[in-house]
Amino acid sequence: MKLDPTLPWDTVFDRVLQSWKDSAYGQSRRPFLSEDVICEACFWDRYVSLGMACDEYTDHEWPHWMRHTLRDLLIELRCVLFDHLVDRSYAGETVGDYYRGSGLMPKSRQGEAVRRAVEIVSDHGIVVDLWLKQRMATLGRWPERVRRAALHEKSRS
Ligand SMILES: [Zn+2]
Known about the structure:
The chain is an all-alpha fold. It is built from nine helices and two strands; from the N terminus they run ααααααββααα. β1 and β2 form a beta hairpin.
C-alpha cells in the first residue's frame, strides 16, 4: 500500500480502511495472527480499542488479525503524515532540520526557529490524534465489511 500524504487526510484514511478490507482474507489466515491470543501492542492500542468499542455490528471483540492489521496500517499512516510534515519548508530549511535534535538541547538555548518547529510538530501530533479518534469512533460498517471480506477470497463488496 502506498499512502499519498498530499491527499486530504480523510481520503488517505479511507485508503487505509480499504487496505484493511482488501488484506482481510490473507491476514486472517496468517499463522501468528489467526491465533486467539492478542499481542500486547494490540491490547494497549487506544485507536484500535476505540474502533472496537464503537463497532455496533458485533457483540464480540475483534479477532487479533483485525486489530493487528489495522494497527500496522495506522502506524504507517501516522509515519507518512509525520514525514510529510517534517519535509515542509520552514525558515529557509525544513521543519525537520530545526526539529531534529531539539530534544537534546536545553530550552534556554533553543532559538526562536527551533522553538517554533517543536511547536509545529507538537500541534500536528495533537491534531492527528484528535482526528484519528474521531475517525475511529465513526467507522460505521467498515469492520463488518472487513469481517465479511475475510470469509471470501477476492471479495470486492
Ligand atoms: Zn497484535
